[in-house]
Structures are given as structure tokens and as C-alpha cells.
Task: structure prediction
Amino acid sequence: MKVSWRTLGTVLLEDEVLDKAFSRAKKAADRVDDPDRVFRVRKQMTRMVQTAADIIATEFQELVAAWPSLDQSPLFDVAMIDACVGCDEYRKNLATLQWASKQVLNIASQNAKKIIRTGRTDLMHEARREAYGRISSIMRQVGPSLIWLSEARETLKRLPKVDPVSPCIVVCGAPNVGKSAFISALSTGKMEVNHYPFTTKQIHVGHFTHRRLQYQMVDTPGLLDRPMEERNHIEMQAIAALEHIGSLVLFLVDESESCGTPYEEQMNLLEEVQTLLPDTELMLVSSKADLLQPLPPMWDEVKVSEEAWRDEGSEGEPELPLLMDGEGRVCLSATENVGLDAMRLEIVRKVKAARPNNPMELPEGWYRQDV
Ligand SMILES: Nc1nc2c(ncn2[C@@H]2O[C@H](COP(=O)(O)OP(=O)(O)OP(=O)(O)O)[C@@H](O)[C@H]2O)c(=O)[nH]1
Ligand SMILES: [Mg+2]
Result:
């Protein structure tokens, strides 16, 4: 149902499209067989012109059809496209291909007429040459668009794939607090690894399913973990995109400070994230609970009840006790797998409370993509 950038075909560049078109056209002409010289040349020349134009037009029309239309894309995708490559450029370059495909077909039909109307083979050859010249000139004009689209594809391929219909939990916090480890520990199945083009860091997208509803978790390295003044316009747009998809923001704090960022600074960051994503419910969670000294008072109790729940097949929605640190803050350990089952159920409860009662009803501005 979702468009996956990863399945978009490579974009052939100007010379590659021309080579493909002209070599197919030549093969088509070579297949012509007619004992009458004038008939033969006429057929050969019309085939060359029409085949070349058809190949190019089909190439471009298929490309335009395969690339998602912005009007029908989820807001998150549109915001990401805008942040990464620019929506105006995206529209403009696809429109250029659309235009070129019409032009090329026009040229072919005009010159095919010339070929058909004359009885002189030299004029047939000339009309064919003229068509090739005009087609090449159109191709020169679309060259920059093809380069742009080819580069855009490379960029968009690396974006995280998020389903706008399923709840999405945005996981943030200072570098090294354990965001990826948390997502990995809560995920069933394989975690996807992606990139935002403006950070070199890997982004993890994980999933778990509860009562047939899929919950997605996205981490935000390099995005929500640095001071406001260092963020550029593009990153701000990406953050706006997170606002669109987030059902819940989990802010991880590493109280042990083994992440390298002092607790104070992590709290400043928390305030920034709150102002950046003001309309999304935020939950503060303390990571690496196994490093706390002493261990959280409920450590053993939580561990035992989670193990018992897992042994019974993880059914239903029991009130598993949340792991709390000495100050009454929810905590967990991704490496020791303590506090995670309780956390998963808490996420489900929070998302349910934040979502509209009718699961088929989407918030304003969203639409549902059909299969
Ligand atoms: N003891 C302990 N270490 C943990 C836990 N979770 C993560 N770590 C460690 O903390 C380090 C950072 O973990 P990551 O999950 O990569 O942290 P991150 O927030 O994704 O880091 P960036 O993506 O670089 O911002 C790793 O060495 C982990 O092994 C935990 O629950 N307990
Ligand atoms: Mg990470």
C-alpha cells in the first residue's frame, strides 16, 4: 500500500535514454523487409522515428506514474520530501518529463507524415534525421531533470518508511542514551535501518503488534538531540514531519550519565523537545536502569511479573507494574530486558487514549491510502 522509495527503478540519464531509444529504433528498421526500395526506406524511416519516440515517451510516462504524487501522499512523506529535496523541484522535474514525452511524440508524428507523403528516399532520410535532431534537443532540455530525479531517488531511498495509519512512537533523547537499544528491545521481527539525509547516523524503525494493531517506533538521532541554534531549516522541517506522525513522544534520559551528556543538559533538551513538538503527548522514561545504584526498588518484582507474563504467552492487557526509580520515574533496562513489557503496555494505553475513538477515523488532514 505504501509507496516505497526503495522499489523505484533507476532513473536513466539523458544519454542512456537516447542510446536505448536509437538502438531499439535501429533494430526495428533492420527488421523491415520489402523488395521495393521506396517502400522499404519509407517503412524503415517511419519505424525509426516512431520507435525512438515511443521508447522515450514510455520511459518518461512510466517514471512519472511510478513516483508518488504529492497531492496523494501522507503529510509525513510530503514534509520529508520537502525537507530533503524540495516539493517544488520535485513537481517541476516530473512535469518536465511529462512535457518532453508529449513533445517527442509530436515530433514523431509530424516527421512520419513527411516521410509518408514524399516519394523521394533522400527526403525520407532527411525527415528521419530532422526528427532525431529535434528529439535530441528535447532530451538536452530534460537532462538536468533526469539528473535531479536520479539524485532525489538516492536520497529518498534512505528515508525511514513510516506508515501514516499506524500509531507511531517517536523516540528521542540525547546521544547514546539508548534510543536504538530501546527500539530494538521492544521490536518483534527485524528492525529497519535508515537514514535522514542530513545526518550520518542510522535511524532505526521498529514495530510491535498488539491486538492486530501495528505500533511503529522511530528514533531520531541527530535530529532532536542538539541545541536549537545548531539546527538548520531542513532539520526543522524534518522535525515538523515528526509532529505529523507522532502519536506519542518518548523522551529517554540516561540518569547514569554513561551517555556522556550531563543530566542537567538532558533536561534542557527535554524542554526544547517539548517546545518543538508541543501537540504530541510526551512521556519521560529513564533508560539503563540496570546501571542505577541502588537498583530500582521494584526491580525484582517487575522482572518476575514480566517473566511470568511472557511464560503464559503474553496474552491480554494485564496491569504489569511499571518499573520506577527512587524518584517515582518510569525506567527500564533494554539490555537486561526489565521494565519493557510493562512499558509496551503503557505505550498501548497512552496511544489508545490519544487516538480518536473510532479507529477508522483519521485526524484532519490525513487520508487513507488504498492498496
Ligand atoms: N547498561 C546498559 N547499557 C545500555 C542500555 N541501553 C543501551 N545501552 C548502551 O548505551 C550505548 C548507546 O546505546 P544506543 O542504543 O546506541 O543509544 P542511542 O541513543 O541510539 O545512540 P545514538 O543513536 O548514537 O544517539 C550502547 O553502548 C548500549 O549498549 C541499557 O539498558 N543498559
Ligand atoms: Mg541510535
